[in-house]
Amino acid sequence: MKLHGKVAIVTGSAANIGRATALLFAKEGAKVVVTTKTNIKGGEQTVTDIQQQGGEAVFVQADLAKPEAVEKLFAAVIEKFGTVDIVVNNAGVTRGKPFLESTLADWQSQYEDNLFSMMLCSQVAAKIMLEKGRGVILNTTSIRGLEHGGRPTAMAYSTAKAATISFTKNLAKELAPKVRVNAVAPGFVMTPNYDHGSPMVTSFIEGTLLKRWIQPEEIAEAFLYLATAEAVTGINLLVDAGYTTS
Questions:
Q1: Residue 197 in domain
Q2: Beta bridge mates, 213
Q3: For 183-226, what is the HEC assignment?
Q4: Which of 74, 54, 50, 51 lies closest to 64, judged by CA?
Q5: 52-56 contacts, C-beta under 8 A, 24 or more apart
Q6: Which CATH number is 166's domain given?
Q7: In a domain, 91, yes or no
Q8: Whose CA is closest to 223, among 20, 68, 50, 45?
């Protein structure tokens, strides 16, 4: 088992990429902390599924854009498991709106959910990891955060994700050599978030080199690689079926 005995927090793990990552990490021996903002039923189901496969997991509900909720999450983890070895900052959401119709509140909401929650969790995790001399922080970014990958109707989301890429690289510099920091930038992942039959979404898939959707489990495998790749830090690993090079 690649993660035997490790304690891993996976945010946004009630469904999709986060759920797949939590399940895989547990299968590889990690004690997993499942957390979500609103999908309590999904979070509890992820814990149940981990336990049924013989793993160990707990569920903590938290709005990670709030500092007090982040402190509460990490306090619960320390009380239960005594430490934190890996944090996967996966929580995030996209809400599209044309730029000229968007408000400051729209932008603040997107930055809170996609960047500030990542920053707050990383800050608390880093203090724990630096004190013990080791640790891994992994972030979910997006192809939308790349200079040629953004979408006009999702500008707030795209710019927030661009910030997560910069955040990842700068945090890797700040926390080296004790703590490794990396990110995975998913392309078009098969989730209910997409209208899979719409012409626009079909054009997304046709724009990839591999002409296929990416499964959540394939993103989880990328996170597992980065969680165990001791010589890798400061990278934004693209898992996009060749979209950004097509």
A1: yes
A2: none
A3: EEEECCECCCCCCCCCHHHHHHHHCCCCCCCECHHHHHHHHHHH
A4: 74
A5: 53/23, 53/26, 53/27, 55/26, 55/27, 55/29, 55/30, 55/31, 56/26, 56/31, 56/32
A6: 3.40.50.720
A7: yes
A8: 20
Helix/strand/coil for 70: helix
pLDDT tens, position by position, 85-101: 999 999 998 888 899 99
- How far apart are the C-alpha atoms of 73 and 63, rounded to whole Å? 10
Place of tokens 């959910």: 113
Which pTM was predicted?
Answer: 0.96
102-118 pLDDT, tens digit per residue, is: 999 999 999 999 999 99
Helix and strand numbers (H, E) in the chain are 8, 7
Write out the catalytic residue numbers: 157
CA distance 183 to 236: 5
Residue 2 lies in a domain: no
In a domain, 1, yes or no: no
CA dist., res. 114 & res. 143, Å (int): 14
* Phi, psi (deg, nearest 5) at residue 198: -75, 150
Residues 55 and 72: their CA atoms lie apart, in Å, by 23
Range of 188's domain? 7-245
In the chain, the number of structural domains is: 1
